[in-house]
Amino acid sequence: MMNYENETLSVNRRNFIKGAAAGWILLNSSASFAFNRNFQQKKLVWIFLRGALDGLHAVVPVADPYLQQHRKGLIEPIQSQLHTLNSQFGLAKDLAFMHQLYQQKQMSPVVAVASGYRQRSHFDAQDQMESGLNQTDHDNGWLARALKEINGGGLAISRSIPIAFRDGLTNSGVDVDTWFPSSFPEAPEDLLNRLNDMYAKDPALNSHLQAVIEQKQNPSMMMQEKRPTGFDYLAKQCAHLLANSSANCAMLELNGWDTHNNQVRRLSRNLSLLDKGIQNLQLGMGQKWQDTLVIVSTEFGRTVAVNGTMGTDHGTASSMFLAGGALATFNGELSGGKVLGDWPGLAPEKLYQGRDLMATSDVRYWYAKALQSHWKLNRQQLSRIFPDLPL
Question: What proportions of the chain, in percent to the nearest 5, are helix, strand and coil?
Fold first, then answer.
């Protein structure tokens, strides 16, 4: 700590200016991602769909005799364009790349899944999904607990650390970095050169500045001039960062799934964004895609029936997706290229509270199975990650 009694005003002013300039550069540099020292070849990406995806619109139960009765207005515009999964289900037309992965045994949808949450608040459901606990702990996330088991590190494509990566209570030192395109202008080369001369005799500041310059020159960190923040772009940058670092997993978010009206048009747009994002993940990971597992899930599903504005309201069970080159190597229940989960049916007496798709499995069950297959975690480790989930 600085001893103000022994420092002159001129020195204080000089240190303030130097420190402020360093801070300005960090805020305006292309990224501030710090590489984790713990290396793990197997990569995991969690894509969280905020807003509640209508799983019946993404993975359509074409063979269910009650489908037309409940949602004729939503099904008729899309039914002729669905990608065939099997005799019972079709995949939304906008998930064309994910269908290709399905055919390559690198994608499997899971039907009728939900968390332990049974109310209909987006915020509460999202927090509980990130926490992975029946009683939400906002400082204790399921990805942080998983990383603790492998002594690993994570990357959040976010401006702040999301609940899923928080480990505030145990303080175990889980290494998580955040990255998001800056809205500040790029630090000009002339300024960097001037600061380079200014910091030449200050080892601490010089070291910090050189790290910023190295990051700025890293192709995977470079931004386009307009600094796009679309999901496809974020997925591409996420893949570059994850593939070229020792981070074990990453978290991406895609909003806009709360389709109370005009669902056909709105979901077409969002499903296309998701599909392009998955494709960019594959392209960006390169050869490491073969060691990558992607999990896609949402906080809850939507009503089976259509509302008066050609949309759906908050429901219970939805669909999730497992994807990635690693999925093709899994055996047994979690193998790729098939529809997973138990289908409860859409008969009125089978619906949850007479309105929602009934959940037949907990989304955390599939998380646990994925961690077991991908990172080879044992039952004891999984019970620490999901302590209130029967395994």
Answer: 45, 15, 40
Distances (CA, A) of 32 to 79, 175, 176: 46, 14, 12
- pTM value is 0.82
Residue 294 pLDDT exceeds 80: yes
Question: Would you tell me how many other CB atoms lie within 10 Å of the CB of residue 39?
Answer: 12
Residues across the chain:
391
Taking the mean position of all CA atoms in its chain, how far away is CA 261?
25
Closest CA to 285 of 254, 250, 323, 244: 244
Residue 14 pLDDT > 60: no
Among all chains, which residue has been given the structure tokens 């200050």? 202
Average pLDDT of the chain is 86
Please give the sequence-ordered ranges of beta strands (E in DSSP) within the chain, or none if there are none: 43-49, 59-60, 83-84, 90-91, 107-114, 153-157, 175-179, 249-254, 292-298, 318-323, 361-362
Neighbouring CB atoms inside 10 A of 106's CB total 26
Q: What percent of the chain has pLDDT over 70?
A: 79
The pLDDT tens digits of the residues spanning 352-362 come to 999 999 999 99
Judged by DSSP in three states, 86 sits in coil
Q: How many CB atoms lie within 10 A of CB 23?
A: 10
Question: Which stretches of 89-226 are assigned E, i.e. beta strand?
Answer: 90-91, 107-114, 153-157, 175-179
Question: Do the beta carbons of residue 156 and residue 144 sit within 8 Å?
Answer: no
Which residues are bridge partners to 43 per DSSP?
292
Q: Is 256 exposed, middle or buried (0-12, 13-18, 19+ CB in 10 A)?
A: middle
In this prediction, residue 214 has a pLDDT band, given cuts at 50, 70 and 90, of: low
